[in-house]
Q: What sequence folds into this?
C-alpha cells in the first residue's frame, strides 16, 4: 500500500521537472551566450519569462515547430549559423519563415552576391 502512495508523488515530481518546447528552445539559444554565470543567467531568464507569461498551447506548438527547425546544417557551427537570416528564421528570432529565409537566393542576397535565376 505504501508503494502505491509513492507512485503519484513520484509522478508529480517527474512531471514538474519536465520542460516544454519553449523552455528547450530557449535553453538551446542560451548555449551561444558563453559558459558559467552568463549562460546560467540566460537560462534563468528564459525560465522566469515562461513562468510570467505562461505560454498558450498555440505558442507551445510554435516553439515545438521552431525547435524542430532550429538546427544548423551539417558542417555549420550552431552559434555562427544562428546569426544568419536562415538561423534566425529557423529558431523563431525573426518574423521570416524558414522556407523563405533559407533559400540559396536569400543567402546570396545577404552576402552581396548576384542572384542567378534558374531558367526552366
A:
Amino acid at each position: 500500500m505504501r508503494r502505491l502512495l509513492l507512485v503519484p508523488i513520484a509522478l508529480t515530481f517527474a512531471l514538474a521537472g519536465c520542460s516544454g518546447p519553449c523552455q528547450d528552445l530557449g535553453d538551446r539559444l542560451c548555449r551561444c551566450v558563453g559558459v558559467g554565470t552568463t549562460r546560467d543567467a540566460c537560462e534563468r531568464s528564459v525560465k522566469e519569462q515562461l513562468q510570467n507569461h505562461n505560454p498558450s498551447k498555440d505558442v507551445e506548438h510554435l516553439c515545438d515547430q521552431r525547435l524542430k527547425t532550429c538546427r544548423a546544417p551539417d558542417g555549420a557551427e550552431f552559434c555562427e549559423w544562428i546569426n544568419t537570416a536562415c538561423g534566425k528564421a529557423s529558431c523563431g528570432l525573426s518574423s521570416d519563415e524558414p522556407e523563405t529565409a533559407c533559400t540559396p537566393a536569400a543567402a546570396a542576397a545577404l552576402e552581396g552576391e548576384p542572384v542567378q535565376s534558374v531558367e526552366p
Summary: Residues 18-69 form one domain. The first helix runs from residue 2 to 17.
